[in-house]
Amino acid sequence: MKQIQRDGLLFELVDELAEHGSWCGETHIQKAAYFLEEMMEVPLNFPYVLYKHGPFSFDLSDELASMRADALLEWEIKPEPYGNTLRTTEESKRLREKIPRTMERYRPAISFVAQKFGQRGVKDLEKISTALYVTKEMPGGERDVRARRITKLKPHIPYDEAEEAVRFVDEMIAEAVPLKGSSELRSRT
Amino acid sequence: MSNAYQKIYPNRFSTHTLRKVNKQVSFFGERLLEKKVRGTAKKNNHEIRDPMYAFVHMDSNEREVLNSAPVQRLRHIHQLALTHLVYPGATHRRFEHSLGVMELATRIYDIVIENRYTDALGIDGDYEKEYYRRVLRMAALVHDIGHAPFSHASEDLFPPGWDHEAMTLRLIESEEMGRIWKRLKIQTDDIAKLAVGPKHYKKEILSNTEAILSEIITGDTFGADRMDYLLRDSHHSGVAYGRFDHYRLIETLRVLPKTYEDGSMEPALGVESGGLQSAEALLLARYFMFSQLYFHPVRRIYDIHLKEFLQAWLEGGHFPTDVDGHLTLTDNEVMSAIWKASRDPELPGHDAAERIVKRNHYRALYTRNPNDVLKNREAGLAIYTAACERFGEENVHHDRPRKSAGRVMFPVLEQDERIVSSLSKSDNLQHIPEVAADTVYINPELLDAGREWLKENRESVIESAVELEDER
């Protein structure tokens, strides 16, 4: 995937998250992009490590900063005491118009993730994204094994909440199958 | 005592530092007297002169780490690679930077421990305080030991999957260092976590305590590493932009709860409101230093020529990652090889070596322009690709370094005890630009032809390269 395509998909993700009521801080964008990549198979190619709020990509963080440098994203200052949000600019919309096929191909996957994540706060996103991380780490692992693994990785998450997060991810995986990023491409070839 | 110091070093010591110095002098003096009386006087505390902070202190146990082969090797690794070819004063090494990071990290630690706003730091009791203080100091001292010759300039020449942080971890876990950690009664893993931070330590997730301590060393906003390199690089290069009031800033650093929109919180390094201006100055200094010094186009092209030479000169084109191989390779060996290769066309890397020695570097043909970015975010790449077709790949280089301006959002403690976001308190922070560069270089012999070509084709190349979707 070329830079311009990746850029366009990230801008779309930011807009969709905002549309679905997300706070749209960097943490929200990070988690949604992680799901886009790992669950929906959209090849953004950002490497992730397990960090404070679950999977986190330092490269994506740099990329978001770089987009601000290029006036494609901007801060929106929110009331105290919370952090601020990121918004796309008019320039980012022009950029997306140049990649209509890419947008068409991946928009369903982006909408799906944004809809699932829009109303969730960082605490929830931490649990869910860690659940997906653990699910990728131990494919086919029983639900309780994965839930225990989450509580080991993140001792502040109680077992029942970890299990609920794993259940949510399993359901999301089942729902995601027909929408996966590469599925349309596969059907074309 | 304090008056005398202030006369000699005006602006060098904060009240807090002076109090500490006095306390230490008194403590050390008593210990010395005690030992002399017993007839076994042996100096346990050592001072090292430093151009930035007057003195860096360490005890005899800590000096074992300083004297270890990986840390001593840093005396022979330039902090800023070949930058001295552009800024002649910039000949300082990673060694003194590492000492500086240890000193600043210690000052930050002492301040945040003494001025606890929350117990989120999770360090309780004298033993834990002293233990983590020592771990932090030693992690700061060794945080750069994995650097290859000429530091960041040659980072890409580690084998795939390796970088200087991975090499730092290998050295921290080496036999030599393991023996020293044991004598110092500190855990190797604790040093490793703090030295490389959560991005590079993959064995487990860092606890809140470890994450904050690691932030004190490597943090993107208030990390001692960042503070020291800005101050030190500025001092040695003569580029004044890197200066900021680090005394004031450090005095006002606090561990504060950072609040998210769902009400969840986590501890983060922030400042008291009185330190906000010095935090702004730090982040502005970072912006100016990147745009004026680190991303200076001539400085960057020397990095590229150096890399070309090393690729040809190193066995297999990569740095060794075994401990012995790493420890025996410094800037000295490379510089000696460059001198030799520059005089002998038969030797590998001759062309790049000659360009470095004779200062016949490639010249900037195209530099980043915000208007071009609006037309095509990869304008430099478009120019580079077209220039390669026109002048040959061997005659053109492309450089697009990226660096965030640093995290500008951090908690600020108001005088009425409210904690607010830095961005809501500071218009300056909202508008600090991110640093970006995008440069295409050309062989100096083709510079005139290149300029002529660019003049005629610039717009069409940038516009026509706005393509372009892959099938994936």
Task: Describe the model.
The complex is a heterodimer of chains A (189) and B (472). With 189 residues, chain A is mostly helical. Chain A has one domain. Chain A has nine helices and four strands; from the N terminus they run ααββαββαααααα. Chain A has helices at residues 3-19, 26-38, 58-69, 90-97, 100-117, 122-137, 143-153, 159-176, 183-188; strands at 49-51, 54-56, 73-76, 85-88. In chain A, the strands form two sheets. In chain A, strands 1-2 form a two-stranded antiparallel sheet. In chain A, α1 crosses α4, α2 (26-38) packs across α5 and α6 (122-137) packs across α7 (143-153). With 472 residues, chain B is of the alpha+beta class. Among the domains of chain B are: 1-43, no CATH class; 46-298, Hypothetical protein af1432 (Orthogonal Bundle). Chain B has 22 helices and eleven strands. In chain B, strands 3-4-8-9 form a four-stranded mixed beta sheet. The longest helix of chain B is centred in the first third of the chain and has 24 residues, at 15-38. Chain B is globular and about 70 Å long. The chains are: A mainly alpha (189), B alpha+beta (472). Chain A binds chain B through residues 1-5, 7, 23, 25, 27, 43, 49-52, 58, 61-62, 65-66, 68-72, 75, 77-78, 80-84, 91, 95, 98-99, 101-102, 120-124, 153-154, 182, 185, and chain B through 198-199, 202, 205, 211, 258-264, 266, 370, 373-374, 377-378, 402-405, 409, 418-421, 423-424, 430, 433-436, 466-472.
Question: What characteristics describe this protein?
Answer:
heterodimer, A: 189 residues, mainly alpha, two-stranded antiparallel ribbon, globular, disordered C terminus, B: 472 residues, alpha+beta, Hypothetical protein af1432, 4-stranded mixed β-sheet, 3-stranded antiparallel β-sheet, 22 helices, 11 strands, 10% strand
